Amino acid sequence: MLGPLEQVRSCLWIPDKPGHHRWVDYQAVGMLLVRTAEAGLAWWSWDQSVRTRVIGSDAQEWSRQWPAQASRACRLRLLAYAYLLGAPVDEALFLCFERLRLARTVFGPEIVDREVDTVYGLLRG
Questions:
Q1: Residue 47 C-alpha from the chain's centroid
Q2: Of 4-8, 43-47, 96-100, 118-122, which has the strongest mean pLDDT?
Q3: Distance between CA atoms of residues 67 and 99, nearest Å
Q4: Residue pair 89/51 in contact by the 8 Å Cβ criterion
């Protein structure tokens, strides 16, 4: 069960700068494993409503279900994990996040910034 989660974690872009800690990713994996144990089902067996509940339909719901010491950055990571694992997620959740930051986390800033520059160039033309 940890194999696919580790593969996703190794694909995510994580800034290499002071103040950003890889532990956010470990917290996100821990959250997925906690809900797996509570549900008695592997994460790949969850339906869309369970995934939405883990990510939280909004920041307040997410904060209510996770301990105060959990980093708020975990919520974005949980959505990135769900996306990369091909899990069906309520599309409305993507509207709750800064999509550019999410895209950079999933695909890396170089690729995203290059594509955004291409779009801006076309719009300017």
A1: 17
A2: 118-122
A3: 25
A4: yes
Instruction: Look at residue 13 and give its three-state secondary structure.
Output: coil
Q: Which residue is it, tokens 């800033």?
A: 109
8 Å CB contact between 9 and 29: yes
d(CA 82, CA 65): 18
Calpha distance 42→124 (Å, rounded): 48
Element (H, E) at 102: helix 99-107
CB 14 within 8 A of CB 108: no
Question: Cα-Cα-Cα-Cα dihedral of 62, 65, 70, 71, to 10°?
Answer: 0
pLDDT in tens, 68-116: 778 888 888 888 888 888 777 777 777 777 888 889 988 989 999 999 9
Give me the helices (H) in 14-69, please: 23-39, 48-55, 59-65
Is the separation of the CB atoms in 48 and 88 below 8 Å? Answer: yes
Helix (H, G, I), strand (E, B) or coil at 119: helix
